[in-house]
Amino acid sequence: MSDDRKGTKGDILLEMRDIVIDGYSDDRWHEIVKGVDITLRRGEIMGLIGESGAGKSTLGLAAMGFARPGCRITSGSIVFDGIDLVKATEAERRALRGSRIAYVAQSAAASFNPAHQLIEQTVEATVRKGIKPEDEAKADARKLYRELQLPNPDLIGERFPHQVSGGQLQRVMTAMAMSPRPDLIIFDEPTTALDVTTQVEVLAAMRRIVEQYNTAAIYITHDLAVVAQMADVIKVLRYGETIEDADTRTMLSHPEKEYTKSLWSVRSIEKPEEVSEDVILKVDHVDASYTGSAKVLDDVTIEVPRGHTVAIVGESGSGKSTTARAITGLLPPSKGQILFNGTALPPTLKERSIDQLQKIQMIYQMADTAMNPRQTVRDIIGRPLEFYLGLRGAERDRRLLELVEMIELNESFIDRLPAELSGGQKQRICIARALAASPDLIICDEVTSALDQIVQKGILELLLRLQRELGLTYIFITHDIATVKAISDQIVVMFQGRVVEQGMKSEILSPPYPDYTKLLLSSVPEMDPDWLTGLLAQREKEASASP
Amino acid sequence: MNNEDDLNPSAKAELADQGFSESDLGNHGYSATAEVTQIRARRSFRENIWRGLRSAPPTALFGLTVISLYVFFALFAPLLAPYGEAEIFDMSYAPWSDEFMFGTDQLGRDILSRMIYGARNTVGIAFVTTMFAFVIGGGLGITAAINNGGWLDNLLSRSVDVLMAIPSLIFALILLSMFGANTINLIMIIAVLDSTRVFRIARAVSLNVVVMDYVEAARLRGEKLAWILTREILPNIMPPLVAEFGLRFCFVFLTIAALSFLGVGIQPPTADWGSMVRETAGLIQFAEYDLTAAMTPMLPAAAIALLTVAVNFVVDWFLHKSSGLKD
What is the CATH code for A279-522? Predict the structure, then answer.
């Protein structure tokens, strides 16, 4: 039924004029979006990009005429294919959602109902809106699964959400959005939670299907390299206002505003590598497993030079985080030992002395869950000062202030709760907490992967500066190659619990690569709109060439 | 996570509104202090309470009023009661009159005075018992959660299962007859039996908290069990525990009243609503001759019912608030 409705490519589908959206917090209405215009044509993909708090998700939802609870659209017009969504009744708007406008959320895992099969959820809206009868919709869903290159497309729909991987779930959600053949799909950070290697597959699948059905899309993300692969035009937002508007190629080659340039700045950090023989930590032929199951670490040997950075890279499940758990004593190795400053560390946490615990500190990926939400910054940073160094009262507060300034924040942050900090600030507080112990070695577990590019850059520069000033040693666990390039001296590549390659940064990041390293390296999106197309073509060629 | 971030213009964002250019905000338009955040206004404890009360639904205000009245009566019982708790007049079963507002009981004690003292005894003992139940059950529940799956967790959980398998009222009756029915035994026995329920809920909600990275961070720091329990976990499970406290208090209160009604609870001459219902129950039969006399046993029963309803109203409101649900 949809083909005549689609109109011709290039007609204006969605026009948003001077949109102002308020959010309610702390007994006051604040403007979140301050007069933004959007014009989207049929079959066009618009990238909305900006850091957290830029108002991009709010704007994306407004394109459906929807304001989250606690938000309201105060002025402006939203015209979708001749229908004014601001003036329309809720019933009229609801008729459009899930049939002509669809939404793909950031976290597929949190958005599926765990109690129903995937295919039931895929066709639910289509069937309930009466667009297609159930049989037809399910047949179509299987077709979409095939087109999205999901494994076993005829049967995967029978599974439940927990039985498929995150990347597959995100593709099923795309199929769900596509099922009613909407005119417009809004993608809200659909690949942010995925590994680079998975991200490539999901991006490719999404782009193909959107092109095939000539669907218009709004693609919301904070990663400019990703949006460059997807979008025809890009709009950069900051503090609820438009910073810059241009088509993708122009935006990438000639960004006009300073702010736009800073968005891909993390890729510009360079650190010269240094060779060092002075080993502070040695993971010596370590095996480890969780209660009785298969080995998660298999004969892992890593040497960490003092005052330098070793990056451990690999995809989820490769054993990177498990290595960290073995070093910290949370998971005692079943074989091998861990030498710190030449002496073997006791395998379990309980047997280690306070002094040994103090010298190895950890910074976590999710700063949100790494800080007790009921403690203020003063308690969070103050505790290690009391606990390890025995500082009290004024002496403690003086050191506290020093630490807060060291991480480029100021006094006004000391009495805040974690909920009152932004993502980057939270991670800085976690860094300060680790520093408070005066450690020799800090293990950073994916510390930047949940952050915007520009915030990442700030954190990485901070870590580098601290390393120079305090002579810290880092073990940096990550799956992001750009981060590795920026910060490491040595690289360890892990795959399925084994170390597949290790050496100096320059050796690892230059050919010839082992297969897995190559896959990992080639999957990192580049700031080039043709990168994805090129990569897919190349991989296809190699696949057909190999027997 | 991202969803909330968008809501919050910070002070710096507002500076940007007022025409500060990007260069004021750092070289690349970035500085750590300028990130967008939402800061809650600092309010004193009193302001917070006032704000909470203003937004409370009528049922919760009703509940709070009733509870405060009970507390008031319990605290000032000797000043408010016209006669003594065990003072006997030579008029048993006196009718309602100006002298004895609600008449007297079978021994000639003033019902009104005993009602007022009963608030002190019944509510006070129930409160102390519930506190004990929470200290025991909560402490062990969180410990079991920290030890999740270990031998201590199994030992505690299975022991609790055994205790819970025996109907608690009957078990309490048996234990009270074994150890003797005095107030201390009453408190300890009901506290231990009720702590099993507290243990279950404390363990269940703590399990969600012990997996958090900040608990792991505390363990890595080398913190002892007591710190992890009281500083890292307890503050984060307070809302469900406080709500459970309200409900548990009602159950304990009813259990004590029931035991007193059966004669093994609070012992005479101490006034208590449960035994007052039992002692004057016979008067109900005289409803066709003297309606006010027949209502006498209803008074302590109504006092029990009213408090239970009031506490539940407050708990509902609190649960609604702490769950973060918006209607």
Answer: 3.40.50.300
